[in-house]
Amino acid sequence: MSNTFYTEETIEHFRHPHNFGEIKSPDGYGEAGxxxxxxxxxxxxxxxxxxxxxxxxxxxxxxxxxAAAIAxxxxxxxxxxxxxxxxxxxxxxxxxxxxxKGLPPIKIHCSILAIDALSEALFQYLKKHKRKIPPxxxxxxEHVEKEKxxxxxxxxxxxxxx
Length: 162
Ligand code: FES
What we know:
162 residues; three-stranded antiparallel β-sheet
């Protein structure tokens, strides 16, 4: 789904982003960046056990980036809240683009940034708890790490949080 311009949904999320901010001592933290535009996103997860399931009870983000990066960050936090880890792992860029009723083709990578930050936060959580990491998630993590390293070399001190 692609549009030439930002949809009303994108403008609304950009103007009034949901779940903006950070969580102190998050259970999962993810950071992702895009080497081409230099945009970066941090995502914080709070995870609680309920009826033998791990539920994402709270989520916040901080993003340095374009209007689409802010809007996709906002949407990913909405999509992930209240989900189990397994459900969160299934969220894709298509879910974000669909929620926004489309993005200009040149802005599709902004939705990937949001998914990368989410994947990183889930990866960190699973790793911290010495849990099995799905091969797809590991692959994504390696890609994000490589991207972050390149960004670090190109734009020194880009990290939002250390
Ligand atoms: S222009 Fe790069 S994330 Fe939006």
